[in-house]
Write a structure and sequence with these properties.
Length: 682
């Protein structure tokens, strides 16, 4: 039996193929990108890789799927070329790159990969070439010829003027005394170099880019008899200072230095880790209004939030960014980090003036604009330049600006600018009172609001919260955008001006001359007490015009029959509060009469039972009123619907009779009934 089990297992393994029996380690991001480039190049022969070259530059990239279809790197157009994949070469008369490169020592391999300048400088030293040609196992991160040519003249002069110390040390810093292939190059790791055991920082990004001290690997894994060569795009130098130490010695960080000290973040910036500091220069701080800057610098919590908003959770070298990506800061916000040509961008702005200043615990990019998070802003700063700026101007004109710039815990219900397209209301006592009722006495978050909750305003009103399937509303106004939570206040963007309730439904109807006939009808039907008491009603209120449109005989008959009148009026009253922002496409609202009302909304026009609503969202303390210009008829009062109900009942009876006859195995309904059944179906 055991033998049979083993044979079955072996057969299954063979059927599934080698992947099932010899599952290898997961490929690294670099290897996956290289594999994709091979797939794209295979039509040109074996071992051909598709390479994207940025037009007008010498920058080349192995292509991933997204870049292949977009044909862009950092927003710049690319062309596709086809080259031998690393480790292979062409053979005259053969398609593709069928031959593996012959193995040679490290020194000779430098010439093969296009680093002849590194060969030249190796020759100038007395010790290094014999080492590269001799026994051993080494890894060299070899700068390309272009990388050496781009070094500042004074740096290059200092190296070549002292070849057996400065140049030798620089080259040894590019070497590791063992073979290291890309599958071993893990994100955030450090390799010990052959210069004083100094660390080389490795970052291996999800997009397949690998950097060495922020220099990008151009061609990797070129094997040699005594090691491996990786071609990189920069000459790298030793890193000795952590982020905090760099802040201390850079003159352009004077204000940042003081801010870090005041916030206590210097301990973090000295610690082990891999951070990216988007370091604001003195110029960045100078662009901020003095009042705002002094407020933040004097508020430890706001200052800490500000600085944390400039620190990314992982080291991000500029060379790794070939398209936009979202990165989280220590403050918890998300920054859009991208590139445009050679420039890095933050939230779409090219504000980075100096990039890839390497530290032992991360990388620094100098920025010339402060990134102030919402959590460090006042309410007025949250709204500045936004789509609620008109409302903010109104608060200022009404003398309420101090509430928006102080340290009160508040929530501002700010209508969108589009609400005021036909003009803002004049500033008077009534408007000021209304605006005060747009300021809630606590700092709220919309995710914690619940249906039926009441909110106290600075104007003394209580506002109700209504939660619908796709809307979150406060009285007649619904939240139109995500919250902005500031230092002390939260900004809710609202889709209209609030109209706080001023009385019960009966008070609203009595106070509007359009509803005088409805009020008389309600009183005749004995419903006054119902619409005056606490509750939650949606009232579709026929105007006088609606009653007058009824045939005279029908109106008199209706007013003379209290029971029928009460039924019809109850059909106009829904059992819950439904404001227009909560309707969506269609809502079936149960009435006090028992039947359901069909309430719909299209292009901001509300209808009930397909009858247009003249005015929506007249708020009352126990409900909401909609003005309509027709009297709604319950289904039982509609002749067509009564006929439909009878037909449905008869059809159901015949269906049951047919089912019964089949079960009892007796003849079915007589042909006359069968014909009648067919007619009723149609």
């Amino acid at each position: 039996m055991a033998l049979l089990v083993r044979l079955l297992a072996l057969a299954l393994a063979l059927a599934l193929g080698p992947a099932a029996t010899l599952a290898g380690p997961a490929k690294s991001p670099y290897q996956l990108v290289l594999q994709h480039s091979r797939l794209r190049g295979r039509q040109h022969g074996p071992n051909v890789c598709a390479v994207q070259k940025v037009i007008g530059t010498n920058r080349k990239y192995f292509t991933n799927c997204k870049q292949w279809y977009q044909r862009k790197i950092c927003g710049k157009s690319t062309v596709i070329s086809y080259e031998c994949c690393p480790g292979y070469e062409k053979v005259p008369g053969e398609k593709g790159c069928p031959a593996a490169l012959p193995l040679a020592n490290l020194y000779e391999t430098l010439g093969v990969v296009g680093s002849t300048t590194t060969q030249l400088y190796t020759d100038r030293t007395e010790k290094l070439r014999p080492e590269m040609e001799g026994p051993g196992s080494f890894t060299i991160f070899a700068p390309s010829n272009e990388a050496w040519a781009s070094l500042p003249a004074e740096v290059l002069d200092s190296l070549v003027s002292n070849v057996n110390i400065e140049l030798l040390n620089a080259l040894r810093y590019h070497m590791v005394d063992r073979r290291v292939l890309t599958d071993e190059l893990k994100h955030g790791m450090a390799l010990t170099s052959m210069y004083q055991n100094s660390n080389i920082q490795i970052h291996h990004y999800p997009n397949g880019i690998v950097t060495v001290n922020c220099a990008r690997l151009l061609k990797a894994d070129h094997h040699a008899t005594n090691g491996v060569v990786h071609l990189i795009d920069k000459v790298i130098s030793t890193v000795t200072n952590n982020i905090q130490q760099i802040i201390e010695i850079e003159d352009t960080f004077e204000t940042l230095r003081a801010a870090v000290a005041a916030s206590g973040l210097n301990t973090l910036l000295e610690s082990d880790g891999q951070f990216t500091l988007l370091a604001p220069t003195n110029e960045a701080f100078e662009k901020i209004p003095t009042e705002t800057l002094n407020r933040i610098l004097g508020d430890p919590e706001a200052l800490r939030d500000l600085l944390n908003n400039h620190i990314l959770k992982s080291a991000m070298c500029a060379e790794a960014i070939v398209a936009g990506l979202s990165m989280e800061t220590l403050e918890g916000t998300t920054l859009e980090v991208g590139c445009s040509g050679d420039m890095l961008t933050i939230n779409g702005k090219a504000i980075i003036s100096n990039k890839d200043v390497l530290a032992t615990n991360g990388v620094i990019h100098f920025i010339d604009e402060l990134l102030i998070p919402d959590s460090a802003k006042t309410l007025s700063e949250l709204a500045a330049g936004s789509d609620v700026s008109t409302a903010i101007d109104l608060f200022g004109q009404a003398g309420l600006g101090t509430h928006l710039s102080g340290n009160e815990r508040l929530t501002l219900l700010a209508p969108l600018n589009s609400v005021f397209e036909e003009g803002a209301p004049p500033i008077d006592a009534s408007t000021k009172s209304l605006l005060l009722n747009h300021i809630v006495k606590d700092q709220l978050a919309s995710k914690y609001l619940y249906h039926g909750q009441t909110l106290d305003t600075l104007g003394g009103k209580k506002l109700r919260v209504f939660v619908y399937r796709n809307s979150l509303c406060i009285e007649n106004s619904c939240i139109a955008a995500h919250d902005k939570r500031g230092r002390y206040g939260t900004l809710f963007t609202m889709d209209r001006m609030l109209t706080p309730p001023v009385g019960t439904v009966m008070d609203v109807l009595k106070g509007d001359n359009r509803f005088s006939m409805l009020v008389a009808a309600i009183q005749s039907a004995g419903l006054t007490e119902t619409l005056n008491r606490e509750g939650a009603y949606t009232v579709f209120a026929p105007t006088n015009e609606a009653f007058q449109a009824l045939p005279p005989g029908e109106l008199n008959k209706l007013l003379g029959n209290a029971k029928e009148l009460a039924d019809i009026l109850k059909y106009h009253v829904g059992e819950e509060i439904l404001v227009s922002g909560g309707i969506g496409t269609l809502v079936r609202l149960k009435s006090l009469q028992g039947d359901k009302l069909e309430v719909s909304s299209k292009n901001n026009a509300v209808s009930v039972n397909k009858e247009p609503v003249a005015e929506s969202d007249i708020m009352a303390t126990n409900g909401v009123v909609y003005a309509i210009t027709s009297v709604l008829q319950p289904p039982a009062n509609r002749p067509q619907e009564r006929g439909d109900e009878l037909a449905d009942s008869a059809l159901e009876i015949f269906k049951q009779a047919s089912a019964f006859s089949r079960v009892r195995r007796v003849p079915g309904p007589a042909p006359v009934y069968q014909r009648l059944l067919e007619r009723m179906k149609h």
